[in-house]
Amino acid sequence: MSEHGHVDTVVIGAGHAGLAMSRLLTDAGRDHVVLDRGRIGERWRTERWDSLHLLTPNWMTRLPGWPYAGPDPDGFRSASELVGTLEKYAASFAAPVVEGAAVRSVRQAGLQQYDVATDCGSFRTRHVVVATGPHGTPNVPDALRGGDVEVRTSNQYRNPDQLAAGGVLVVGASSSGVQIANELSRAGRDVVLAVGRHTRMPRRYRGMDAFWWMEQTGRTARTIDEVRDAAAARAEPSLQLVGRTGAGTAADDLDLAVLQARGVRLAGRLESLTGGTATFSDDLPQVVAAADRQMHRFLDVVDDHIDRVGLTAEVWPPARPRRVDLTPTPRSLDLGAEGIRTVLLATGFRPDHSWLHLPVLEPGGAIRQYRGVTAAPGVYVVGQRFQHRRDSGFIDGARHDARAVTTHLLTGSHPPLARAERPGDRRGSAETGRAV
Q1: Are 378 and 127 in contact (CB under 8 A)?
Q2: Which of 46, 167, 336, 401 is 20 to 30 A distant from 392 in Cα terms?
């Protein structure tokens, strides 16, 4: 590749968000390339555990010009199946993907001109779309730095056989943490789960998937303008859900009550790990109670919606998840004495845009934007958590942000908000700042 090859738009990242942008730019006849450090869907290939399935049902795998049309709309794709879907999607419109082109820097090179340097050459461009997703660098709590046990992060975990023999302390009780703890327990491992703030949700309620209710009640379309605390909404923990083929019964729920019944020991938030001794906070009852209150508030909204639109005869009677009856939880554990040889972190990720040398970053490293538009002319972002809508971070939601960014890139202005996206059009929890 020649030095400073000229192209109108550079899209960084060949995951679902980058490919959604590429489809819309292709439809508009816009000259562009899509760069990725690896292959299409690289994170789904190399940074997911073997048994992982999407949290969202297949019918929610909707990309621009590519609605779901398969035989199992209520099933859940595996990570490898999603990679295949993304490859087929890219091939369907001959997406100009350049694989193995890790971006090393993006710098301004003049008035709305940017140099994008990669491992295989550089590009001069007028527009840059960052579509690398919300996953940056694994968040390793200070409590675990310098510990004496093996520490792995969730993106390094593949299966139970990969870990050292013995027990496992799993840190974090959002979707990744509860799924990994469940898999390890089923494999016969002694598991302790350190529980911090989390979002509890039944897989199905009154016969329908939780995401169906979120869409029907307008939760997925809620915008960042409708919450009081945008930072809190964007930091909302992922839902305690698991995606399995054949879902549809209460047995598909995966929460603290289910894990506890399977022998997983619960502890509070990990506070420190010193000399092989882990200490935990004592606020687990309060954390669990807060998650239950939030869940019941949402289920109240669902019940109200059912009554309001006349669905009572079409859905099942209400049956809510049982309360988590906590057994006494430890304040500290000697990991060696407990036979715990591995600490596995499912504590999320923090932004890493160290290669983006433009005045668009917030103090914590996230990209400052509104509806995908940054302060640097011609520089955009797609696929961030709650970028504009509640579903922005999901595969299904990226299409909305990609359309908004494409419209701004082509015309210089935002598209009008759909009615469901206008602040005040729906009842909701704008006073709480919480996302669900």
Answers
A1: yes
A2: 46
Q: Are 327 and 259 in contact (CB under 8 A)?
A: no
Flag whether 436 is in a domain.
Answer: no
Output the CA–CA distances (angstroms, integers) from residue 111 to 235, 361, 380, in the order listed. Answer: 35, 19, 16
Give the helix/strand (H/E) hosting 420: none
What is the per-residue DSSP string for 366-396? PBP-BTTB-SSTTEEE-S-TTSSBTTTTSTT
Same domain, 154 and 90: no
Task: Return the axis-axis angle of helices 79-92 and 16-27, rounded to nearest 10°.
Answer: 10
Q: Supply the pTM of this predicted model.
A: 0.92
Amino acid symbol at 320: R
> 52 with 125, same domain?
yes
Q: Mapped to the 3 state alphabet, what secondary structure does 28-87 carry?
A: CCCCEEEECCCCCCHHHHHCCCCCCECCCCHHHCCECCECCCCCCCCCCCEHHHHHHHHH
Among 323, 348, 373, give the residue marking a domain's end: 348
- Amino acid found at 327: T
pLDDT at 247 over 70: no
d(CA 201, CA 182): 16
Residue 238 neighbours by CB under 8 Å, 6+ apart? 55, 174, 175, 176, 199
Q: Residue 64 to residues 61, 204, 413: CA-CA distances in angstroms?
A: 10, 27, 20
Q: What is the pLDDT of residue 40?
A: 98
Q: What is the model's pLDDT at position 145?
A: 59
How many domains are contained in the chain? 2
Is the sign of the CA dihedral 112, 230, 391, 153 positive or negative? positive
Tell whether 41 is covered by a domain. Answer: yes
Per-residue pLDDT, averaged over 87-99, amounts to 98
pLDDT value at residue 435: 38
Instruction: Identify any residues that bridge with 129 across adjacent strands, giving them in sequence order.
Output: 11, 380
In degrees rounded to 5, what are phi and psi of residue 109? -125, 20
Position 367 in a domain? yes
Evaluate whether residue 125 is within a structural domain: yes
User: Could you tell me if 380 and 417 lie in one domain?
Assistant: yes
Could you tell me which of 39, 43, 85, 45 has the C-alpha nearest to residue 66? 85
Distance CA 250, CA 155 (A): 28
In tens, the pLDDT along 179-203 reads 999 999 999 999 999 999 999 999 9
Query: Which helix (H) or strand (E) is 135 found in, with range?
Result: none
| Structural domain boundaries, residue 105 | 5-136+351-421
